[in-house]
Amino acid sequence: MSRRTFLKRLSGSLLGLLGLSGGTYYYAKHIEPSLLTIKEETIELNKVPESFDQVKVLQFSDTHIGFHYDIPQFEQLIKELNSHQADLILFTGDLFDAPNQVSFEILEQAAAALSKLQAPLGKYWIYGNHDHGGYGTEIIATYMQKGGFKLLKNEHVSLHNGDSAITLAGLDDAMLGKPDINKALQGANPELFTILMCHEPDYIHQVKGASVDIQLSGHSHGGQVQIPFLGYLVTPPLAQEFVEGWYNIKNHPIQLYVSRGIGTTRLPYRFMCKPEYTLHKLKATSNR
User: Taking the model in full, what pTM does it have?
Assistant: First the structure.
């Protein structure tokens, strides 16, 4: 987003909020950003193996620690995530808002919190644009690894449960990295149910020809500010077509889910766009 476009949208957001009332502005800045919600979704496809029926996949995204979101809030989030006893935990990018401005102490605290998350099928993550930004690429990789998360950067893994397996793949960030869907799926069995993590949702147009069933994304923050009749006031590049929730992609069976994420960036408020994490429950269909 250019500086001019950002300032224009920022002005529109402020005017929209102030136009509603000063109380609304206070709510958007100080209350709604802390109203964390859980979305419970079901992924039902005939490619989901019977042994993965009822498997819980927890997705969280865009914490942006450091921009109006601190370590105590993050530690509380980790406790809540753990309470769901998920089988698989996925982080879809942007841990810190500005990684190169974070102290060693905070980095260590974030890694310690992440290490408390438990999931028998594993914990995986992908880069977001803020993870690469500010020379943060190696910093974030180091501390996510300390937290027990495995990076999927244009690669995939096979996850086994019982006598069956599914494929989990991840792309490098589409804005500041070098995503390569062919490399990510090289050697993967196209017959297996396949989940792809990709930070930017609009990048799905580069993915839809691949053997992917579900793409999980973040990045959009749900627009952060939604005004009745005006819609999403601020959406970043590569999250302007697909902003939140589920989407079916025209002329292709791939489905896309976009999380609103946890934190905020650039604009320190949310309105009609509560922060969220998502618990996806896999469901095997019986018509096989």
Answer: 0.93
Q: How far is CA 199 from the centre of its chain?
A: 6
First to last CA, the chain: 47
Domains of the chain: 3-284 (3.60.21.10)
Give the tokens for residue 20: 């509603």
* pLDDT confidence of residue 219: 98
**In the chain, at which residue ranges do the beta strands (DSSP E only) sit?**
37-45, 56-60, 88-91, 123-125, 150-151, 155-161, 164-170, 194-197, 214-217, 226-227, 231-232, 245-248, 255-258, 276-284
| Residue 121 reports pLDDT greater than 60 | yes
3-class secondary structure for 222-245?
HHCEEECCCEECCCCCCCCCCCCE
Radius of gyration in angstroms for the set of CA atoms belonging to the chain, rounded to a whole number? 18
Phi-psi region of 108 (alpha: psi -120 to 50; beta: other; left: phi over 0): alpha
Q: Among all chains, which residue has been given the structure tokens 């993050």? A: 74
Quick one: tokens of 53? 């029926």
AA identity, residue 49 = P
Q: What is the pLDDT of residues 144-182, one digit of tens each?
A: 999 999 999 999 999 999 999 999 999 999 999 999 999
**What letter does residue 288 receive in the DSSP assignment?**
-
CA distances from 125 to 94, 129, 137, 286 (A): 10, 13, 13, 31
